[in-house]
């Protein structure tokens, strides 16, 4: 599939004309990032906007004790980055490829030049910022107020909404590798505490677990919540 056709499938760009997509094609550079590669650290941040053409990335921070906290996982068609005029809040984050990735970058100068002539792109980015802020606020409230099991359930439902695989059973599998440690990064707890909580959720038949895989029983979870 050529780059123009792929760009047209981006959530951010799917309403743009073919002529606009051709221009964006000329303005972006494409870079591969193998799985487990660190795409950005707070020290290596550079201004620009990044479009995920293929793969998934994890956005996280690290506290003084070395504990990681995962803010989000972004899949194909999503965007991250920051310029003077606009920020998606990723300047101070670590960004890691959790699958083999292809990332399109538009530099600060090219991005600012483009949005002057194509204001509809700015409107879509503002919508993404709004959605992401709601998600961050909800995550912060969950960390502050909810018991660990409920924080885990809330996180799993959100991931299922993003990456759930439809199937004929009552359980919906989350289509990303998800170890106990990786889930612990989402909910701000130790791996050991998450393991105990997951076993309890399995006994209650709210989830099923396998090797780096988790499926949720959405109907039963909705009854509980």
Tally of helical runs: 8
Trace the largest sheet across and list its strands: 1-9-3-6-7
Low-confidence stretches: none
- Which descriptor suits the 3D outline? globular
Q: How big a fraction of the residues is strand?
A: 25-35%
The topology string of helices and strands comes to HHEEEEEEEEEHHHEEHHEEH
> How far is the N terminus from the C terminus?
43 Å
For the CA atoms, what is the radius of gyration?
19 Å
DSSP summary, beta strand count? 13
Structure classification: alpha+beta
Q: What is the helical fraction, as a range of percent?
A: 40-55%
Described by strand count, sense and barrel closure, the largest sheet is: 5 strands, antiparallel
The overall pLDDT average reads 86
Walkthrough of the structure:
InterPro entries: cNMP-bd_dom, cNMP-bd_dom_sf, Env_Response_Regulators, HTH_CRP, RmlC-like_jellyroll, WH-like_DNA-bd_sf, WH_DNA-bd_sf. Residues 146-220 form the HTH crp-type domain. Pfam families: cNMP_binding (PF00027), HTH_Crp_2 (PF13545). The mean pLDDT is 86. The strands form three sheets. The chain has a five-stranded antiparallel β-sheet. β6 and β7 form a beta hairpin. The protein is built from eight helices and 13 strands. It is 43% helix and 28% strand. The longest helix is centred in the middle third of the chain and has 27 residues, at 119-145. α3 crosses α4 (119-145). The protein is of the alpha+beta class and 225 residues long. It has helices spanning 3-7, 18-27, 108-117, 119-145, 148-163, 180-187, 191-203, 218-224; strands spanning 28-33, 38-40, 48-54, 57-62, 68-74, 79-83, 86-87, 94-97, 101-107, 164-165, 171-174, 207-210, 213-217.
